[in-house]
Amino acid sequence: MEPDPKLLDVLVCPITKTTLVYDRERQELVSKAAGLAYPIRSGIPIMRPDEARELSEEERTKR
């Protein structure tokens, strides 16, 4: 299930308040500034830092 595009336009990282990049393949919202990827489950972004995955060094420089 895809998240609502309007929702993706207004969401920001809860830590840095910067924009997020939608990674459709991994179903995550990525905050390069925070170095975190927030999961999307059943079309719902989970914006809790304790649920986020830490980006690898390669991912931090790649995106």
From TrEMBL:
InterPro entries: Trm112-like. Signal peptide: none annotated. Transmembrane segments: none annotated. SUPFAM superfamilies: Trm112p-like. It comes from the Bacteria. PANTHER family: PROTEIN PREY, MITOCHONDRIAL, ZGC:162634. HAMAP family: UPF0434. Belongs to the UPF0434 family. This is UPF0434 protein GCM10008942_39000.
